Every structure is written in C-alpha cells, then in structure tokens.
TrEMBL record:
<comment type="function">
    <text>Removes the 2'-phosphate from RNA via an intermediate in which the phosphate is ADP-ribosylated by NAD followed by a presumed transesterification to release the RNA and generate ADP-ribose 1''-2''-cyclic phosphate (APPR&gt;P). May function as an ADP-ribosylase.</text>
</comment>
<keyword id="KW-0520">NAD</keyword>
<dbReference type="InterPro" id="IPR042081">
    <property type="entry name" value="RNA_2'-PTrans_C"/>
</dbReference>
<dbReference type="InterPro" id="IPR002745">
    <property type="entry name" value="Ptrans_KptA/Tpt1"/>
</dbReference>
<keyword id="KW-0808">Transferase</keyword>
<dbReference type="GO" id="GO:0000215">
    <property type="term" value="F:tRNA 2'-phosphotransferase activity"/>
</dbReference>
<dbReference type="GO" id="GO:0006388">
    <property type="term" value="P:tRNA splicing, via endonucleolytic cleavage and ligation"/>
</dbReference>
<dbReference type="InterPro" id="IPR042080">
    <property type="entry name" value="RNA_2'-PTrans_N"/>
</dbReference>
<comment type="similarity">
    <text>Belongs to the KptA/TPT1 family.</text>
</comment>
<dbReference type="Pfam" id="PF01885">
    <property type="entry name" value="PTS_2-RNA"/>
</dbReference>
<protein>
    <recommendedName>
        <fullName>Probable RNA 2'-phosphotransferase</fullName>
        <ecNumber>2.7.1.-</ecNumber>
    </recommendedName>
</protein>
<dbReference type="GO" id="GO:0003950">
    <property type="term" value="F:NAD+ poly-ADP-ribosyltransferase activity"/>
</dbReference>
<dbReference type="InterPro" id="IPR022928">
    <property type="entry name" value="RNA_2'-PTrans_KptA"/>
</dbReference>
Length: 182
C-alpha cells in the first residue's frame, strides 16, 4: 500500500471512528467499538472502498497507533468528539508530561489552562519530542511542561491510552511551565 493511500484510509477512519460515525450509518458501542466487517461495508456503501488488508496495514503501520483492533472489532484509541467511554483505568503519570501547541494559543492557555476543546480529554505526551511533533501540525511548536505528578497528588485523574497518549479532563494553568521567551 503506498503512503498516500494509507494516509487517505487513516483519515477516513479517524473521521468516522472518532467524530462522525453516523455519517456512514455506523453505530459505535459505548466503548467506541464497531465490527470491522460492518465498517468496511458501510464505507463501501458510501463510496469509499478499502480492504481488510488495507485496514490491517493502516492500523499496524500508523506511527501514532491511532486505532486498536480487538478480535473482530476496531476503534479509535482516543481523540473522540462523540460520547464514548474508553474504559481506561486510572493511571499514575510520570512527574512531567508535555503538551505541544503554538504561540497564538498561549495567552488563552495562561488564562484558562489546557481544556479538552471539542474532545473528551486533554491529550498529553510522555516526552518533548512527541509534543513537538504534535505542536508542529499547527505551525512553529511551543512545548509546555505539565507537572503531572503534582496534579495527581492534588487529585486529578489520569488515564493512558493504548498508544501511550496521556489523558486528563483539564490542566489548570498553575500546573503548566512555559518555555523561556513565551
């Protein structure tokens, strides 16, 4: 499968497994899962055909591990804007986690902290490199440090998705460290 095709299938899956399953007639269960055969048939019925081999390739080769397969079912690992319960147990985070953003959002982040926006949770990275890549999707990245250890001690709950993304409901600004010059 060439890279362009893999990206196209991955974006299609993200759209319909994270945000708009109803657009192609899918009904995800409460955990966000759908039968793979149902997904493939629904996509084909709406003009986007892909094979099980292509799906398996996208799931296996995706560097961010955006999707999980369990038996005959598939779901997005996190990032949903629709109501799903991922069933992830609470987890103790490392002392520091990181969030990649761009400078134009820093004033709002200073004032309000990190909010989930149109997602269920704030997404945090386990290392600066990953956060840099996340922030670079919107421009020149700025990486914020999150004192996750202090948050956890203060009662904030964390979860970690199957692909290593740390999730929490919000990050109040007092737990954020901004890089020098920002």
């Amino acid at each position: 499968m060439d890279e362009r095709r893999a990206v196209k299938v991955s974006k299609y899956l993200s759209k319909h497994l994270r945000h708009q399953p109803e657009r192609i007639g899918l009904a995800l269960d409460e955990g966000g899962w759908v039968e793979i055969d149902v997904l493939i048939a629904a996509a084909a019925a709406h003009g986007f055909r892909f094979t099980r081999d292509e799906l398996d390739h996208v799931v296996a080769a995706n560097d961010k591990k955006r999707f999980a397969i369990e038996g005959t079912r598939i779901r997005a690992s996190q990032g949903h804007s629709i109501d799903v319960e991922l069933g992830l147990p609470p987890a103790t985070p490392p002392q520091y986690l990181y969030h990649g953003t761009v400078a134009r959002y820093l004033d709002a982040i200073r004032a309000e902290g990190l909010r989930p926006m149109n997602r269920h949770d704030v997404h945090l990275s386990p290392d600066r490199e990953t956060a840099t890549r996340v922030g670079a999707r919107r421009g020149r990245p700025v990486v914020l440090s999150v004192d996750a250890g202090a948050m956890h001690r203060d009662g904030h709950v964390f979860h970690v998705s199957a692909n290593g993304v740390w999730l929490t409901k919000a990050v109040p600004s007092e737990y954020l460290r901004f890089p020098a010059g920002h």
